[in-house]
Amino acid sequence: MTTVSTLPWAAAPAAGNAIGLYAKWTPALDAKIEAALQRLREVSIAHGDGLVQSSSLGAEDMVITDLIARTQLPIAISTLDTGKLHPETLALLPRIEERYGRTVEVFKPRFDAVVEFVAREGEDAMYKSIELRKACCGIRKMEPLGRMLAGRSAWITGLRREQSGARSDVAFDEDDGNGRRKISPIADWTWAEVWAYVQKYDVPYNPLHDQFMPSIGCAPCTRAIAVGEDFRAGRWWWEESSKECGLHAKD
Ligand code: SF4
Question: How many whole angstroms from 171 Cα to the centroid of ligand 1?
Fold first, then answer.
């Protein structure tokens, strides 16, 4: 099995080390960690089995999984396998199970829907138009997310205000527009603080973060970013869009 992605979309920068590049413990971080844990405890008590962490397996979500597992909170952990993820991303699943003894429930798109869409629009449909890209996200992400959240009253995300202008007002606890609470316990953390936590607690992370991919989605829709580019510039980089797939879009 292939375990390392080639990076066809951009001349890959020399691999760095995300911890070395980004980690910076701040005076506020101890209090932010305790506040995030308190939010997780409260939402776990309030929602019980109705609560799930929807993990993208990115650095922020790995921090949250670590917070949940280290404090033995009874919160289910789930992810979406779109069928287009990098092998490095999928390789985190057994690492999480080995490290934390937690099983990650994986939700995949409907096979027939994917086959029909690819047969009709092609394997590279996402590059042809925003409509087709959103249709692909609908089949591979939104539909399985709906199954993940069915019967749940709250979900946990790794959204941070610093990630983009569209996310600058992310609340710790908000209505997701579908009658559920959406909890973003590290909404106020900086990228430097995320990596300081990863370093301190030796959190497993996607090695693609070492290759200048701060935001990692599906392989065809993620590229490395250059110095000075926005955090999410490597997502759907060919589009002039809000860089959202629908999971967290407000419009
Ligand atoms: S991110 Fe790209 S490959 Fe993944 S579901 Fe959306 S359009 Fe399809």
Answer: 26
Q: Is 136 annotated as a binding residue?
A: yes
| CATH number for region 18-109+148-208 | 3.40.50.620
Q: How many CB atoms lie within 10 A of CB 171?
A: 12
Q: Can you read off the two tokens belonging to residue 174?
A: 């908000």
Contact between residue 77 and residue 52 where contact means Cβ atoms under 8 Å apart:
yes
Site residues for ligand 1, CB cut-off 6 Å: 82, 84, 126, 133, 136-137, 140-141, 217-218, 220-221, 245
31 CB contacts (<8 Å, ≥6 apart)? Answer: none
Residue from 245, 248, 250, 251 carrying the catalytic annotation: 245
**190-239 residue pLDDT tens:** 999 999 999 999 999 999 999 999 999 999 999 998 888 888 888 888 88
